[in-house]
Specification:
The complex is a heterodimer of chains A (about 110) and B (about 110).
Chain A: E1 5-7, E2 10-14, E3 19-24, E4 31-37, E5 43-50, E6 55-58, E7 61-66, E8 71-76, E9 85-92, E10 100-101, E11 105-110
Parallel strand pairs in A: 2-11
Antiparallel strand pairs in A: 1-3, 3-8, 4-5, 4-9, 6-7, 7-8, 9-10, 9-11
Chain B: E1 5-7, E2 10-13, E3 19-24, E4 31-38, E5 42-50, E6 53-56, E7 65-71, E8 74-79, E9 88-95, E10 104-105, E11 109-113
Parallel strand pairs in B: 2-11
Antiparallel strand pairs in B: 1-3, 3-8, 4-5, 4-9, 5-6, 7-8, 9-10, 9-11
The chains are: A mainly beta (about 110), B mainly beta (about 110).
Chain lengths: ~110, ~110
């Protein structure tokens, strides 16, 4: 069974608005990563957050991690049409290099 | 620096044929992963290698699937015989194993089995 479940499954917003995507997982993790996938392309790494971190920023991206709730959120501020893509969370447990990917959120940013 | 290179990008073949997918990881990366992506099941990890050795192949769906990594710069995923339900996009990814590292994905092989 998949470790991560993203919510919502699909999101449509206007350019300039903020987009928030959530990821919930089932077991304790070592770290969590967020990836973006453009149509017809491979996944691209966005940001990694370790289990002892609560928040990380990278440009217009902000990721939070709540290990007590087993959840993470990805916030994209001031969205652009180029942000249109699917976004996935991926979790890794201690002692393994395996990452389990969630079901993804399809984001559409309207110009 | 070249990214992960997969070939072919598209493959269409008839049921029963052997299919071989190829992957060249990023130079210096010592972990390699094969994934399968479908609408129904999402992104599934099939197998991963560390220093050319298969570490976990529990995601390989059946004995029809096999993967090899003869050296640090090349890996293959083979399906023999292929079936229509194997149709999917197959991704290869590589990473450095030293501490948590991002995975770098190729652009995938879109496989259609008729």
């Amino acid at each position: 069974s998949q470790q991560g479940e993203e919510d919502p499954q699909a999101l449509s917003i206007q350019e300039g608005e903020n987009a928030t995507m959530n990821c919930s997982y089932k077991t304790s993790i070592n770290n969590l990563q967020w990836y973006r996938q453009n149509s017809g392309r491979g996944l691209v790494h966005l940001i990694l957050i370790r289990s002892n971190e609560r928040e990380k920023h990278s440009g217009r991206l902000r990721v939070t991690l709540d290990t007590s709730k087993k959840s993470s959120s990805l916030l994209i501020t001031a969205s652009r049409a180029a942000d249109t893509a699917s976004y996935f969370c991926a979790t890794s447990t201690s002692g393994t290099y395996k990452y389990i990917f969630g079901t993804g959120t399809r984001l559409k940013v309207l110009a | 620096d070249a990214g992960v290179i997969q070939s072919p990008r598209h493959e269409v073949t008839e049921m029963g044929q052997e299919v071989t997918l190829r992957c060249k990881p990023i130079s210096g990366h010592n972990s390699l992963f094969w994934y399968r992506q479908t609408m129904m099941r999402g992104l599934e990890l099939l197998i991963y290698f560390n220093n050319n050795v298969p570490i976990d192949d529990s995601g390989m769906p059946e004995d029809r699937f096999s993967a090899k990594m003869p050296n640090a710069s090349f890996s293959t995923l083979k399906i023999q015989p292929s079936e229509p339900r194997d149709s999917a996009v197959y991704f290869c990814a590589s990473s450095s194993v030293d501490s948590p590292q991002p995975q770098h994905f190729g652009d995938g092989t879109r496989l259609s089995i008729l």
